């Protein structure tokens, strides 16, 4: 009896200790679930077993714990689904995105419409400029048609010519007439009109140019040639003055004096002349100007003495 009693007592103690461990482990599992929910980690068996300090198989032994965990997981899934299906709020990103997209579509449509109107306006502007040009052309044409001067005039053959015609056909001066007739040229209407357009002196110069040209060339139509020269106000060629021996001597010596550095290089036309004698600039450092102004003959003699 005593042994059996002790055995029963030990069994009761073991069962009580086992029950306490079971309750303690259960409390650990519940605390682990709460901790995982607060941290936001996924509520699954591996995470619960790691936080509670037990194995995954241990959790599956407890039917009530397994069902409890599954219930929590299904509730979490339902909450997520409800959040996704929930209508977005007034200030949610989804709502703002839709608003912006709609606004972009409206602005794009408005931009296309403005472009279309702009193209139409460009066409109208082009038409306006074309009409303006046409109006200017018609206005000019009307002005020409309504101007009295543009209307054709009928002149009688027996009518007396106006003063302007008399001026155009008036006879040249006696001197010009003599110069032309001496060359055997008849003074016709066209020649009279051309002579009247120019000054008498220019006409005389043109006649001299014609005489000079005629003396060296054969002319088939002298009247037409003279008319052209008067119209162009031709000038006679002036013969060049022949170089005298003295001038030729000066040119040769002056060129040699400049090349040797005896005289400064001054063009002949800028050299002064005194009593018909050309003065040259002879290089001389004793003068402040750096040269001495001498008659070219004296300078030539001095140059020859220096060479000796």
TrEMBL record:
Residues 1-23 are annotated as: Disordered. InterPro entries: TnpC-like (IPR046229). It comes from the Bacteria. Residues 1-10 have a biased composition (Basic and acidic residues). Keywords: Coiled coil, Plasmid. Residues 97-127 form a coiled coil. This is Transposase.
């Amino acid at each position: 009896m005593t042994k059996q009693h002790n055995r029963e007592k030990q069994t009761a103690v073991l069962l009580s200790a086992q029950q306490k461990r079971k309750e303690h482990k259960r409390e650990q599992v519940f605390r682990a679930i709460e901790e995982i929910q607060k941290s936001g980690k996924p509520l699954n068996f591996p995470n619960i077993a790691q936080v509670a300090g037990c194995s995954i198989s241990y959790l599956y032994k407890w039917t009530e714990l397994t069902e409890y965990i599954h219930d929590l997981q299904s509730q979490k899934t339902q909450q997520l689904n409800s959040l996704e299906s929930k209508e977005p709020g007034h200030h949610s990103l989804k709502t703002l995105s839709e608003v912006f997209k709609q606004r972009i579509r409206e602005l794009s449509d408005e931009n296309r419409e403005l472009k279309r109107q702009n193209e139409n306006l460009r066409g109208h502007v082009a038409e306006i400029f074309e009409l303006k040009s046409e109006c200017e052309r018609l206005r000019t044409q009307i002005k020409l048609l309504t101007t009295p001067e543009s209307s054709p005039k009928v002149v009688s053959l027996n009518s007396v010519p106006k003063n302007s015609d008399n001026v155009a056909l008036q006879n040249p001066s006696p001197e010009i007439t003599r110069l032309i007739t001496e060359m055997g040229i008849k003074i016709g209407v066209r020649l009279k009109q051309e002579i009247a357009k120019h000054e008498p002196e220019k006409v005389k110069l043109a006649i001299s140019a014609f005489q000079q040209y005629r003396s060296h060339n054969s002319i088939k139509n002298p009247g037409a040639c003279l008319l052209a020269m008067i119209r162009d106000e031709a000038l006679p060629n002036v013969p060049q003055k022949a170089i005298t021996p003295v001038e030729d001597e000066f040119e040769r010596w002056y060129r040699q004096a400049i090349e040797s550095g005896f005289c400064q290089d001054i063009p002949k036309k800028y050299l002064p002349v005194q009593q018909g004698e050309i003065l040259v600039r002879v290089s001389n450092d004793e003068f402040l100007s750096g040269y001495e102004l001498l008659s070219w003959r004296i300078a030539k003699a001095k140059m020859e003495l220096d060479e000796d």
